[in-house]
Amino acid sequence: MSVTAAKGFTAAGIAAGIKENGNPDLALVVNTGPRRAAAGVFTSNRVKAAPVLWSEQVLKDGRLSAVVLNSGGANACTGPKGFQDTHATAEKAADVLGVGAIEVAVCSTGLIGVLLPMDKLLPGVEKAAGSLSEHGGEKAAIAIKTTDTVHKTSVVTKDGWTVGGMAKGAGMLAPGLATMLVVLTTDADLDSDALDKALRAATRTTFDRVDSDGCMSTNDTVLLLASGSAGVTPQYEEFAEAVRQVCDDLGQQLIRDAEGASKDIKVEVINAATEDDAVEVGRSIARNNLLKCAIHGEDPNWGRVLSAIGTTAAAFEPDRLNVAINGVWVCKNGGVGEDRDKVDMRFREVHIVADLAAGAETATIWTNDLTADYVHENSAYSS
Amino acid sequence: MSVTAAKGFTAAGIAAGIKENGNPDLALVVNTGPRRAAAGVFTSNRVKAAPVLWSEQVLKDGRLSAVVLNSGGANACTGPKGFQDTHATAEKAADVLGVGAIEVAVCSTGLIGVLLPMDKLLPGVEKAAGSLSEHGGEKAAIAIKTTDTVHKTSVVTKDGWTVGGMAKGAGMLAPGLATMLVVLTTDADLDSDALDKALRAATRTTFDRVDSDGCMSTNDTVLLLASGSAGVTPQYEEFAEAVRQVCDDLGQQLIRDAEGASKDIKVEVINAATEDDAVEVGRSIARNNLLKCAIHGEDPNWGRVLSAIGTTAAAFEPDRLNVAINGVWVCKNGGVGEDRDKVDMRFREVHIVADLAAGAETATIWTNDLTADYVHENSAYSS
């Protein structure tokens, strides 16, 4: 399944020895179909990892034959040598697959500021190419894990065509994407313009609204490859909706596996004057450390929601704000509302609704609670 | 000392019963000097507590005779009743002191969204007025503590005149101020315009650059009162510098007592194109949860510094960035620099220098690490 659910794709996931513990750390996804159309969305962080700089470049002609992904090292902040390493990785994959290097995207994830062990990575590419399979999607999804506790895949099948994908990401989830690496594939027959449009529309309301810890990665990459193998060209709207569904599903899986989290928090902003206002308020709530601690403590501390809303430039009047936590309107008209003891917070999912009473627009941001486990996991990561 | 170090002030701190544990929770500061000049700086949060709305109003004529401060309840998000309670508090103080209510500022700190127990607060104001003393500054500083582990005071004495003050604040420290309540006093003979100018200049580079956890309070207030009792009018520059020193000292005390923190982090941004760029980059670094966790783990993870810089709009080229941690330039020209194992992080203070190589401006932001203790303290606060 995963990236090989759609026809016209093979994939592999192997252990190249990049990770010292011997776990799988190299994935290869190859488009074997008649089409090689592709689109990509990348981190908006201005400090971009070498593989991001490379992949942005090679995607300019809307064509990809393969994607090499490694865990065990981000190849970010590694200077000219890091970029040469990415280039060499693409060249190696191009050689063994018989394609051009500019048809090969590269994705990396792991610690920043460390050069990749090319003596292991390059033989790994050859090894991965040797184990490519139409059933390799699952292994590829496993090989891109870092601190992920589970691998993430999703598939939507429509009338004769399919969109599938894999994702990794557990820390640094944030707007403008996350350290998420995502590869989506489809056997629908579409050109790169249609892919690009559908992918941007989908990420804008899914991955871009997953904000686990407010920290934007140097390596975020979401790729969509089309093989045309199904011989079907779906209506754009139907295709875009299938891409959105897969992105939404994968985004939810990222949130549920976020580092150290014990709660998944859905922040729904309603009655905003504009969608931008709704997103700004949602992010401000989602990034408030004090609120995230309160949710961890199962404390429906709505005052921290209001204080987060108050830091934004969105249109609202303080004395018209309403806040519900798990269905109980604990804040009405900017003041005390229903009894906060009625709020049941025992379950993993917490639903916060912030009513700005300023219009008709809405947006939903997903985040996690802030826990001692998050601190522990991220205190020790590079040690 | 504290607010009574300057001549022409009395103060008191008592237990009014607002806090259920019986600790001191009400402070009163009274200007007895010939002058009653005053200035104030307040939270830029748009959700403002009732005492902030009140105090902003009464300060419009640049004149204050007294300040009532309570801990044990923020009186924020409490609607019209909350504002009436603040008004009644000022009226009560005005009555017992024989001044007008519009000469009385009110400050509150504690949980948001809960009405104050006025049946305890109003008798408390009377009790505090009965124990006013020229030596009451210390007790006043103790009575405004919430989760503070120590009370904070500072005094600068110059040639015949003095600036002194007290502060509370340990959580919610952030830009646009913090939940910090600060009262400064001086016996220098200055009008409210000079006070206002000196106070704004001082807070801009001190309290405004203390950003413990990125969360802006609904209640932040910094007041400066002048009694004129010294009969001396200092040069403005000298006075402004004394105010800055007291603010700087109190700001440092806030950082050192931040909730759950084990490290005080000085983020110094150098060679920025503009001071605004330097502040934006400093804040972005100071608010990066992943970096704050790494510092907690004594891990000189400079990649997280770069990834935080990359989210800003400041002028810089990624491949010209340099980062030092505790004096070791671990990142040079956007890549790996000196050996990170040389970085000694055993001590409480950590010094991060981010060199943008884009100009000549600089700014320093102070923050803390992110710890399991922070999570624990803020998970349980309102329970």
TrEMBL record, chains A, B:
Site, Cleavage: residue positions: A178, T179
Top enzyme category: transferase
Keyword Acyltransferase set for record: yes
Ranges in coiled-coil conformation: none
Pfam families: ArgJ
Pathway: Amino-acid biosynthesis; L-arginine biosynthesis; N(2)-acetyl-L-ornithine from L-glutamate: step 1/4; Amino-acid biosynthesis; L-arginine biosynthesis; L-ornithine and N-acetyl-L-glutamate from L-glutamate and N(2)-acetyl-L-ornithine (cyclic): step 1/1
Site (Involved in the stabilization of negative charge on the oxyanion by the formation of the oxyanion hole): T109, G110
UniProt-annotated binding residues for substrate: T146, K168, T179, E259, N378, S383
InterPro entries associated with the record: Arg_biosynth_ArgJ (IPR002813), ArgJ-like_dom_sf (IPR016117), ArgJ_beta_C (IPR042195)
Broad class of the protein's primary localization: cytoplasm
Sorted UniProt keywords: Acyltransferase, Amino-acid biosynthesis, Arginine biosynthesis, Autocatalytic cleavage, Cytoplasm, Multifunctional enzyme, Transferase
EC nos: 2.3.1.35, 2.3.1.1
Reactions the enzyme catalyzes: N(2)-acetyl-L-ornithine + L-glutamate = N-acetyl-L-glutamate + L-ornithine; L-glutamate + acetyl-CoA = N-acetyl-L-glutamate + CoA + H(+)
Domain of life the protein comes from: Bacteria
Keyword presence, S-adenosyl-L-methionine: no
Catalytic site positions: T179
SUPFAM superfamilies: DmpA/ArgJ-like
Localization (cell): Cytoplasm
Protein family (similarity comment): Belongs to the ArgJ family.
Subunit: Heterotetramer of two alpha and two beta chains.
Protein purpose: Catalyzes two activities which are involved in the cyclic version of arginine biosynthesis: the synthesis of N-acetylglutamate from glutamate and acetyl-CoA as the acetyl donor, and of ornithine by transacetylation between N(2)-acetylornithine and glutamate.
Record protein name field: Arginine biosynthesis bifunctional protein ArgJ
